[in-house]
Amino acid sequence: MNSTKNSQPTILVVEDEGLVRLDAVETLRDAGYAVVEAVNAEQALALVAGGGKVDVLFTDINMPGRMDGLELARRVNRLEPRIHLLLTSGKVRPERGQIPDAGLFLPKPYSPEAVTRAVDRMLA
User: Fold this and answer.
1) Is the pTM of this model over 0.90?
2) Cα–Cα distance between 44 and 120 in angstroms, integer?
3) Is the N or C terminus of the chain more exposed, i.e. has fewer CB atoms within 10 Å?
C-alpha cells in the first residue's frame, strides 16, 4: 500500500489503558511505522473522519464510552474501506463475521513481535 520510503504507513492505536497504549505505540514506532494515538473510539473516529492519514486501525474492543472497538471498526470500514483493521481484547474473542472485511483479531496479552507481524502482513 504505502510502502515507499518517503511515506511510512500510519497506524492509529486506540487503547484506553495508558501503559498498554504506550507499549503498542513504542513497538510500532520501533518497527518503523508512524503512529497516531487515541484514548477512545470517539476520538479515533473523529481523527479518521477528519481526513487524518491512517493505514491501519489497531483498536482494543473493550473501551469506555458510547462505542466499543467493534463498532469503531465497522464505522471506520464504512467511512474508509481502505483502512486495515486489527482488533485486540483480553476479554472477548469476536467471531469471524463480527470483524469487517479482512480484519484480524490479536488476543491479549500479545507480544511486540505479534503486533508487528500482524501489521506487516496487513500492509504487504
Assistant:
1) yes
2) 21
3) C
